Amino acid sequence: MSSVLSQAHPWLDGLVAYDPGKPIEETARELGLDPADIIKLASNENPLGPSPKAIAAMKEAAEGVHIYPDGGGYKLRTAIAEKFGLDRGQVVISNGSNEIIELIGHGFLNPGDEVVAAEHAFVVYKLMATLFGAETIEVPDPDFVHDLDAMAAAITPRTRMVFVANPNNPTGTMVDGAAIDRFMARVPDHVVVIFDEAYHEFVPDAPDTLKYLREGRNVVVMRTFSKIQGLAGLRIGFGLTTLEIASVLQKCRQPFNTNSIAQAGAVAGLLDEEHQQRTRELNDEGRAYLERSFAEMGLEYVPSHANFVLVKVGDGDAVFQAMLRRGVIIRAMRGYKLPEWVRISVGTMPQNERCVATLKEVLAAS
Ligand SMILES: *Cc1c(COP(=O)(O)O)cnc(C)c1O
C-alpha cells in the first residue's frame, strides 16, 4: 500500500472535521430561496451585526491592506491589556479564539497526553486534542453542568490541560466562582487550565478568572470578538495568560495570524460599550421569549446564560432539516451525542418569533 494516507498521523483516522452552522447563501442555493428570506440562528452570532464604530474602523483599514498587518498586534494587544489591567505580554491575539486552542496544543501536547473536558463541552477541545495525538477524558456533566470536582479528580500525571467552558456551548450552563475556587485549589502545577469565556459578556456577574492569572497560576482565559462583538466573520479572538505561557504561544503562531482589518475592527469594537449593552438587552429579551415559548410547547430545554438555548425536540436531525426547508437555519446536535436536541441562537425578536412559529409548524407536522 503506497497511498500517502498511510503516512498521515495514525490518530487522524478518528478525527471528524468540524461541522459549522450552515451558511445562508448555501441554503438559498440548495432550496432555490432568496437569501433575504432565510434566517440563521445556528452559530450564536450577534443579530445586531457589528458595532458601527467597528465598521467605520474596518472601512478605514481596508484602504491600507496592501501593507502587511502588524504581526505583533501592538494596538489591539495594548487596548486589551489596558482594559483588563494586564501586561501587553500577557495578551495573545488569534485567528478566532479557536486558534488559541490550537496554539496551546502546538505548545504543550504530545501523543499520549491527556486533556480533560466535560462530556458536553465545546467540541473543538476534543478535535484539537485528537489533532495532536492526545486523548480527551470526557467527564460526565449531570444536568449539563460541568462537574468541576469530578474534573479535578480526573487529572492524572499525564494530564496536560483542563478546559472549562463558562458559559459552555452548546449547553448554555455555567459554574460559579466558589466551584471554580475549589477546583483551582486541587489543580496541580503541571496542568494548564483553560477558561473558555466566549459568552462572558452576556453574563451580568460572571466569575473573575483573571484573578488566577494575577496569582501566577497556569491559566489561559479565552475571549472572542465573534459573539457579543458581532465580528465572527473577521476571525479574531485572544488569550490572556502568564508571560511564560504567552511566550510559548507566540512561538506557535503564524507571523500574520490576524489581519489588519480584523485588528482595527476589534480595537474599535472593544471600546464600544454601548453596542455591547444593546446586544445584551436584546439577548435577554429574546432568550426569555424562546425559553418561555419552549415551556409553553411542553419542550424540555436547558436554562441558558448565553445567546442560545438547547432544546429537546425528538429527532434533532429531522427538525433541523424541516426548519431548513422553511428557511430557518438552526443547529442539530448529533455531533454532541445529543441526537434529540437542537441548539437555537437568540436572534432579533421578529427572527425569534418566526423561529418559534416555524418550530410549532414542524412539530405539528411530524
Ligand atoms: C463561538 C465559540 C468560540 C469562539 O470561536 P471563535 O474562533 O472566536 O469564533 C470559542 N469557544 C466557544 C465555547 C464558542 O462557543
Question: What does this protein structure show overall?
Answer:
With 366 residues, the chain is an alpha/beta fold. The protein has 2 domains: 4-49 and 274-365, Aspartate Aminotransferase, domain 1, CATH 3.90.1150; 52-272, Aspartate Aminotransferase, domain 2. Helix content is 39%, strand content 15%. The protein has 13 helices and 13 strands. The protein has helices at residues 24-31, 52-62, 74-84, 98-108, 124-131, 148-153, 177-186, 210-214, 243-252, 260-270, 273-296, 316-325, 349-365, and strands spanning 39-40, 91-94, 114-118, 135-139, 159-165, 192-196, 219-224, 237-241, 301-302, 308-312, 328-329, 331-332, 341-345. The strands form 3 sheets. It has a 7-stranded mixed sheet, sandwiched between helices. Strand 6, helix 8 and strand 7 (219-224) form a beta-alpha-beta unit. Helix 11 (273-296) runs parallel beside helix 13. The longest helix is centred in the C-terminal third of the chain and has 24 residues, at 273-296. The termini are far apart. The mean pLDDT is 96. The chain binds pyridoxal-5'-phosphate.
